[in-house]
Specification:
Layout (H helix, E strand, L loop, with lengths): L25 H12 L5 H14 L4 H11 L3 H23 L3 H14 L1
Length: about 120
């Protein structure tokens, strides 16, 4: 899967951003919830490790298999949560890159209906 964000040979890429440890994302929330439901005692740490990788490096089949096993779900569930998170991230990026009123209005409506 292609790398999203700075490439490995990019001087800005250091494979670590301290904000990743606390970044609240839909995939991180889903992963934490499923790990906790499965009885994991380190759900927060696993979610903190996998959630940033989901966005910046994508998910390979080994990651999908591992997370499905750890969460007691199937690969399709993990993949769906992964894709939903990338969609959410794309909307965030769109707002940052082009904050026109139409995009902002659509995103605010989405947030309002989600609550």
């Amino acid at each position: 899967m292609p790398t999203i964000g700075p490439g490995y040979d990019d001087p800005e890429y250091d494979n670590h951003d301290p904000a990743w440890r606390h970044q609240d994302t839909p995939f991180r929330r889903w992963l934490h919830e499923k790990l906790a439901e499965a009885g994991s005692t380190c759900a927060a740490d696993i979610a903190a490790g996998y959630a940033p990788a989901n966005r910046y490096n994508g998910m390979n089949s080994a990651d999908l298999d591992t997370l499905a096993m750890l969460t007691g779900t199937d690969i399709d569930d993990v993949h769906s949560a992964h894709k939903a998170d990338l969609g959410h991230w794309a909307r965030e990026q769109q707002l940052r890159d082009h904050p026109d009123l139409a995009v902002l209005d659509a995103d605010l409506d989405r947030l309002r209906h989600r609550s």
